[in-house]
Design a protein that fits this description.
- By secondary structure, the chain is an alpha/beta fold.
- The protein folds into two domains: 3-165, Rossmann fold (3-Layer(aba) Sandwich), CATH 3.40.50.620; 179-264, Alpha-Beta Plaits, CATH 3.30.70.
- The chain has helices at 3-20, 31-44, 62-73, 88-91, 97-116, 127-130, 136-142, 148-151, 156-165, 191-208, 232-236, 238-251; strands at 23-26, 48-54, 76-81, 120-122, 214-218, 222-226, 255-258.
- Strands 3-2-1-4 form a four-stranded parallel β-sheet, with helices on both faces.
- Helix 2 crosses helix 9 and helix 5 packs parallel to helix 7 (136-142).
- The radius of gyration is 19 Å and the shape is globular.
């Protein structure tokens, strides 16, 4: 897309946010919410706040990054402690787990906006999210959370380009979904399991320097490692694989595998049709 086209979308985004006059941004420190936070700071000034959820499912380093980005942008930053791990529906890890997480988050951000006297809560969803399996989008709709990037017709590529033009350091940051997303549907989400995954991913990143990567937790405590396809040989060398196996067994995994398909964002969703006893999408409102 040409620079003029991005600038046109940027101006549309800023106008949408100006129309709100005051906003709370659901801020994860990913590229999407960082662009929205930057736009909110420009459009609404002191009438904008970036709010980050703190829970066991937040990967190490993400909260510090959120603080740094908020300071760089010049937007007020609030940290909200969420409690999705007390919700049995979330812990059961059905296909719509994200719905319960986002409902918990937005249940805090709405009252925050009311307390501040702000007019809107906004998130970082973009047009590409509408074509993916995103149960959190229903939670947003139910809680009157708006998606200004969607309204301004931003694709993911557009978001990255605007972030680059704004010189935001996360413009090329890989997606960093919550740690619970690494657990196969139907396997209970627990603080212990997300800590295992976090420690395993940090170890692999430090050992290999690879990004992005994932450690997926499958049934029977099996760790399925995903790295970029052209880096499989790097991880499979005897010395590296021995170190990985030793560390992950020590963390509590029982078996360790290397996925020969390589890294795929959202790869857990490929098994949705095979997972039993999931909460049906039509039951969202009944499951709150």
């Amino acid at each position: 897309m040409t620079s003029s086209a991005i600038e046109e979308k940027r101006d549309r985004l800023l106008q949408i946010l100006r129309n709100y006059e005051s906003v709370v941004v659901a801020f994860s420190a990913g590229v999407d919410s960082t662009v929205v936070a930057k736009a909110a700071a420009i459009a609404c000034g002191e009438k904008s706040v970036a709010a980050t959820a703190l829970s066991p499912s937040l990967a190490s380093g993400e909260l510090d990054l959120a603080r740094e980005l908020a300071e760089l942008i010049g937007i007020r930053h609030e940290i909200i402690e969420t409690d999705e791990f007390s919700n049995p529906a979330y812990l059961a890890n059905p296909a719509n787990r994200c719905y319960f997480c986002k409902t918990e988050l937005y249940g805090h951000l709405g009252p925050l906006a009311e307390k501040l006297g702000f007019n809107a809560v906004v998130n970082g969803a973009n047009l590409d999210d509408k074509g993916d399996y995103r149960p959190g989008m229903m939670a947003a709709a139910e809680n009157s959370v708006s998606s200004p990037l969607v309204d301004a017709e931003f694709s993911k590529a557009d978001v990255r380009e605007l972030a680059r033009l704004w010189e935001l350091p996360v413009w090329n940051k890989p997606a960093t979904p919550c740690l619970s997303s690494r657990i196969a549907y139907g396997i209970e989400v627990t603080p212990e399991r997300v800590r295992m995954i976090d420690a395993a991913e940090r170890f692999l990143s430090q050992l290999t320097g690879l990004k992005p990567l994932r450690v997926r937790l499958e049934h029977q405590q099996l760790a399925r490692i995903e790295v970029p396809l052209d880096q499989l040989a790097t991880v499979a060398t005897p010395a590296t694989s021995d170190a990985i196996v030793k560390k992950l067994l020590n963390l509590g995994f029982c078996s360790i595998t290397l996925d020969l398909q390589g890294f795929r964002s959202g790869s857990m969703n490929s098994a949705l049709g095979e997972v039993q006893n999931l909460v049906e999408l039509s039951d969202f409102s009944q499951s709150k």
